[in-house]
């Protein structure tokens, strides 16, 4: 394995881990939304959508990059 493949897979692993943490925060929030009523919040469905859309885009980007380097 050359350095380009190692860097690609290391980057892919970091991106997947970060995206999983973003999805976890979107689908399983740690705070009670009613607890801080002074802070405006978007609806839960919108937060989930903005967590899933980048995950799909990053997955497509990683797949395309993997296919291009093969």
Write a structural description.
With 70 residues, this protein is mostly helical. The protein has a domain at 43-70. It contains two helices and no strands. Helix 1 runs antiparallel to helix 2. The chain is elongated, with a radius of gyration of 17 Å. The mean pLDDT is 84.
How would you briefly describe this protein structure?
The protein is mainly alpha-helical and 70 residues long. Helices cover 73% and strands 0% of the residues. The protein has a domain of 28 residues.
List keywords for this structure.
73% helix, 70 residues, mainly alpha, 2 helices
Computed Rg: 17 Å
Proportion of β residues?
under 5%
Helix- and strand-based class? mainly alpha
Number of helices: 2
Secondary-structure element pattern, one letter each: HH
What's the pLDDT, averaged over the residues? 84
End-to-end separation: 12 Å
Tally the beta strands. Answer: 0
Query: Which residues form runs of ≥5 with pLDDT under 50?
Result: none
Shape: elongated
Largest sheet: none
Query: How helical, in percent, are the residues?
Result: over 70%
């Amino acid at each position: 394995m050359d350095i380009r493949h190692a860097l690609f897979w290391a980057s892919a692993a970091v991106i997947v881990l970060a995206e999983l943490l973003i999805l976890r925060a979107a689908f399983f929030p740690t705070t009670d939304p009613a607890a801080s009523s002074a802070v405006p919040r978007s609806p839960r469905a919108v937060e989930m959508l903005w967590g899933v859309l980048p995950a799909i885009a990053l997955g497509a980007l990683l797949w395309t990059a993997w296919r291009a380097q093969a």
